[in-house]
Amino acid sequence: MTPQKAETEKGVLRVASYNIHQGVGGDGQQDLQRVAQVINDLAADVVALQEVHVRFGGEAQRRQLDFLAQATEMSPVCGATMMRPDGHYGNAVLVRTPILREQLHDLSFSGREPRGVIDLLLETDLGPVRFLATHLGLRPSERRHQVRRLLAWIERAEHPVVLAGDFNEWFPWGRAARWLTRPFLSQRSPRTFPAKYPLFGLDRIFVAPPLRVMQLDAVDQGFARIASDHLPLLALIEKSAPRLAESAAPAQQKGAQGEQHQVGCPGQQNDDGACRQVEGIA
Q1: 121 Cβ contact list (under 8 Å, min separation 6)
Q2: DSSP string of 234-276?
Q3: Torsion, CA 209, CA 47, CA 24, CA 82, rounded to 10
Q4: Coil, helix or strand for 152?
Q5: Which one, of 194, 129, 140, lies nearest residue 164 by Cα?
Q6: Which one of 139, 181, 202, 252 is most buried, by most CB atoms within 10 A?
């Protein structure tokens, strides 16, 4: 595929998901410039990032989100899930479109590494789109808990939804992955991991009607096979014709908005408003 965005591309939302592995590539070297080049080559409107050091002490080279935002000329959204005195770590989003609303939700499962979701309402060429970016847990029971919570928010959404991230589902028939077909159209899962010889589709991009995926690919051009242990995933999304959208299974029901947080790296809040600090990075 050719990731470059066409000058005449109208009415198309380009969405990417990329686990950058803290900028450490297949050669064992940490090189954020390579990661930035991969992101630039995607020419995406919005990119969900996982395993990002969003702030790390006073060392400028460890401020990965700041560096990537500057190198790509995109706006950063911080979704750190692990808060430490010497730095914060977790999810992030880079976006070119205006952000109408920002929220964070806690998806943590007792006794496991903290997880979360960045929940944005974006102003796009397709109209307002709710964009969720996440990185689910390693154990099946953990993922099932997290998907149940995601479904609760998605089914109350008032706008079309795009869900992107690293879902850690090794096989498409996993229970959590199958549950996500309830609100979303069936999507294939291109192989993204490991980047050098991709065997598993850990990274996913889901869309709900009236949105439709025109094209979905794992991108292996340029530095993509060496910059991280995952390949980036890129989707081209359009809005379905009204008749097609009406005939599809409803993806959202109007209702209450999801639980709301303040967004920011220095202190992450749980759904009950309590601030949590987590020592160590798993």
Answers
A1: 99, 100, 101, 128, 129, 130, 131, 159
A2: EEEEEEPPHHHHHHSPP-----PPPP-----SS--B-TTS-B-
A3: -80
A4: helix
A5: 129
A6: 202
Q: What is the pLDDT of residues 27-54, one digit of tens each?
A: 999 999 999 999 999 999 999 999 987 6
CB-count burial class (<10 Å; 0-12, 13-18, 19+) for 232:
buried
pLDDT of residue 84: 56
- The answer for residues whose C-beta is within 8 angstroms of residue 218's C-beta and 6 or more apart is 190, 191, 192, 198, 201, 203, 231, 232, 233, 234
Taking alpha carbons only, the member of 129, 166, 169, 167 closest to residue 252 is 129
| Coil/strand/helix, residue 169 | coil
Alpha-carbon torsion 23, 28, 34, 35, what sign? negative
Cβ–Cβ < 8 Å for 215, 1: yes
Cα gap 241→222, rounded to integer Å: 35
Q: What is the C-alpha separation between 234 and 147, in angstroms, rounded?
A: 22
Name the token pair of 265.
């790296």
* pLDDT of 112: 74
What is the three-state SS of 29-72? CECHHHHHHHHHHHCCCEEEEEEEEEECCCCHHHCHHHHHHHHH
Q: What is the pLDDT of residues 239-276, one digit of tens each?
A: 986 654 444 444 444 443 333 333 345 444 444 333 33
Residue 208 CA to residue 161 CA, distance in Å, equals 6
Distances in whole angstroms, Cα of residue 216 to Cα of each of 13, 36, 255, 272: 12, 21, 30, 37
Tell me the pairing of strands 203-207 and 99-106.
unpaired
Lowest-pLDDT choice from 109-118, 127-136, 198-207 = 109-118
Q: Could you count the other beta carbons within 10 Å of the beta carbon of residue 215? A: 12
How far apart CA 190 and CA 29 sit, in angstroms, is 26
